[in-house]
């Protein structure tokens, strides 16, 4: 996931994203590609504890230079989309694991990236909340969003349109 998300760079080979070979690109170019093209849903949520839900969703919008008023409107809209209307002012420690995951999803979606990388998005959740998160991801995919979901849960993997497996460093179509 880190290589796909341009957080780590491969030692060899080739990785081309939008006709740009990412090998040997400067950090600022990689950061720009990440911000414009890739949304992350981390397994550990990676929410900023000093920021409330609304502010956590606004962070990537600020990096894109979107004015505060517009970014606030967008953050409210995405939090409502993931079912968190009324929880915007809550800090991460005031939210359940499922609610924190929804904030992470809203944050990933707000910049309208072409690719969403979801690392075990249901791993720390109860089955009901995990199913709700999967429904959100499936809806996004039906709307045209590319979702790359990393999971060890075969039942979650079976819900995907396409499944690949990494075994001993090699990629296999399942």
Q: Which structural class do the helices and strands define?
A: alpha/beta
Low-confidence stretches: none
What is the overall number of helices? Answer: 6
The largest sheet has its strands arranged as 3-4-5
Q: How large is the radius of gyration? A: 16 Å
- Fraction of residues in β-strands: 5-15%
Q: What is the approximate shape? A: globular
Strands, total number: 7
Largest sheet: 3 strands, parallel
Helical proportion, percent range: 25-40%
Could you spell the SSE succession in H and E letters? EEHEHHHEHEHEE
Your description of this structure?
There is one protein chain. This protein is 40% helix and 15% strand. It contains six helices and seven strands. It has helices spanning 27-37, 53-63, 68-81, 97-109, 127-142, 154-157, and strands at residues 16-17, 20-21, 38-41, 115-119, 146-150, 164-167, 170-173. The protein has a three-stranded parallel sheet with strand order 3-4-5. The protein is globular and about 45 Å long. The mean pLDDT is 91.
Question: What attributes does this structure have?
Answer:
single chain, 174 residues, three-stranded parallel β-sheet, two-stranded antiparallel ribbon, 6 helices
């Amino acid at each position: 996931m880190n290589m796909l998300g341009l957080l780590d760079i491969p030692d060899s080979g080739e990785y081309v994203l939008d006709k740009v070979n990412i090998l040997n690109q400067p950090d600022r170019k990689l950061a720009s590609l990440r911000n414009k093209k890739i949304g992350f849903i981390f397994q550990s949520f990676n929410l900023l504890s000093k920021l409330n839900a609304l502010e956590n969703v606004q962070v990537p919008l600020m990096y894109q230079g979107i004015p505060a008023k517009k970014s606030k409107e967008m953050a409210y809209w995405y939090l409502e989309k993931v079912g968190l209307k009324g929880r915007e002012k809550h800090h991460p420690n005031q939210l359940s694991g499922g609610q924190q995951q929804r904030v992470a999803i809203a944050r990933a979606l707000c910049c309208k990236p072409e690719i969403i990388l979801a690392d075990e998005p249901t791993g720390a959740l109860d089955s009901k909340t995990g199913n709700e998160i999967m429904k959100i991801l499936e809806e996004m995919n039906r709307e045209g969003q590319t979702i790359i979901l990393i999971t060890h849960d075969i039942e979650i993997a079976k819900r995907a349109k396409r499944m690949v497996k990494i075994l001993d460093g090699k990629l296999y179509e399942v």
